[in-house]
Write a structure and sequence with these properties.
about 375 residues, alpha/beta, Aspartate Aminotransferase, domain 2, 2 domains, 3-stranded antiparallel beta sheet, 14 helices, 12 strands, binds pyridoxal-5'-phosphate, transaminase activity, transferase, pyridoxal phosphate binding, pyridoxal phosphate, PyrdxlP-dep_Trfase_small
């Protein structure tokens, strides 16, 4: 496309939720029922989500962030505990560790997958006598769960999964979320499925699920109203969110297939471009491409400006490492993570979501392959 045409073209968003008449009908039903909270939609959504993953228990929350906090607390992580995690993630991951009174221990990531490096995890777990490993399946690609599960088991540490970006992702057929003592999902609108704001804790441990249910509901006993078992929170999901989730979940696998088809088209089209590295999907892994993230070892800034000129949505997830942010530096964090620092300087995410039309896909491929460098 000629630059003057590109400037007048419709802009292609980096993310866009798909909302059908089904979501509208279900939300309208909730509004007309007058039961906006504590109704059957949330319980049904929890059951449907647990069934989808093949896990025994799911507890809905108000967001992925609140799900993380409650998952850690319900799993018994708190004051004095060290939790090994990645510096290359959304800030909510390690904020939750701090909010429950524990201490994040950041370790570097693998340059190919952008996920936490198992060898670095093993070293840190041993050195810090860590109570838990909190892994993040970044961009929709699962972490090396075989290695992480083994490290956790040998050290007697808990494995907790942040699956906020990875609904439906799998390792050798097993869905992420089913490996950890507790795992969380986010339903923010940019995720593979949405409820507006919303989150979910999943677990195979009935005691963790029971504690999570009490914590999200102001610490109130499940047996008696206004009887408080613990100092809890109001982190409940609304019926409106639950109703949207019930309409979205049956379409998740289809949307993930579209994301994968888009990603495969990009990877084929970009194979000959020597100035960038497309994302990888190791054998046995099922990537759900919440983001299609390429690496550009130099000239990233020029590429970002070029995408803006062509009205192609893009984001840098993430330009800074969490422990290097002012909030974390003030708490004494910092440190050096050479691989993650390099990734932060090189990554760019392109639109890959299922709302892209064939024309959008053609425009993105055309623009990227013609980037003059
Ligand atoms: C890796 C990761 N963890 C946690 C969260 C927090 O989820 P939420 O935005 O629903 O609070 C997000 C998403 O925004 C995320 O990407």
């Amino acid at each position: 496309m000629h630059p003057s045409q590109a400037r007048s073209a419709r802009s292609i968003p980096i993310a866009r939720p798909l909302i059908s008449d089904e979501e509208k009908r279900r939300v309208l039903d909730v509004l007309e029922s007058g039961m906006l909270v504590a109704g059957r939609q949330v319980a049904e959504f929890e059951q449907a989500f647990a069934r989808y993953l093949g896990v025994p228990e799911a507890v809905a929350t108000s967001s992925g962030t609140t799900a993380l906090e409650v998952a850690l607390e319900a799993a018994g992580i708190g004051k004095g505990d060290a939790v090994v995690t990645t510096p290359f993630t959304f800030v909510a991951t390690s904020n939750a560790v701090l909010h429950v009174g524990a201490r994040p221990v950041f370790v570097d990531v693998d340059p190919r997958t952008c996920n936490i490096d198992p060898q670095a995890v093993a070293d840190a777990v041993r050195r810090e006598k860590a109570s838990a490993i909190l892994c993040v399946h970044l961009y929709g690609l699962p972490c090396d769960m075989g290695a992480l599960a083994q490290i956790a088991e040998q050290a007697g540490a808990l494995l907790i999964e942040d699956c906020a970006q990875a609904h439906g992702a799998k390792v050798r057929g097993r869905p992420v979320g089913a490996f950890g003592r507790a795992s969380i999902f986010s339903f923010y609108p940019s995720k593979n499925m949405t409820t507006g704001e919303g989150g979910m804790i999943v677990t195979g441990d009935p005691a963790v699920a029971a504690r999570a249910r009490v914590l999200v509901n102001v610490g109130q006993s499940t047996g008696e109203d206004y009887m408080y078992e613990t100092i809890g929170y109001n982190y409940r999901m609304t019926n409106i969110a639950g109703a949207i989730g019930l309409a979205q979940l049956p379409r998740l696998d289809g949307w993930n297939e579209i994301r994968r088809t888009h990603a495969a088209r990009f990877t084929t089209a970009f194979a000959a471009l020597d100035w960038m590295m497309p994302p990888v999907e190791p054998a046995g892994y099922f990537h759900v491409y919440n983001q299609y993230t390429i690496r550009i070892p130099d000239r990233r800034q020029r590429f970002l400006s070029y995408l803006a000129e062509h009205r192609i949505g893009h984001r840098v997830y993430y330009p800074h490492l969490v422990p290097h942010s002012p909030a974390y530096r003030r708490l004494g964090f910092g440190g050096s993570y050479p691989v993650a620092e390099q990734l932060a300087a090189q990554v760019v995410s392109l639109p890959v979501h299922p709302a892209l039309s064939d024309d959008d896909m053609d425009r993105i491929i055309d623009a990227v392959t013609r980037f003059p460098g």
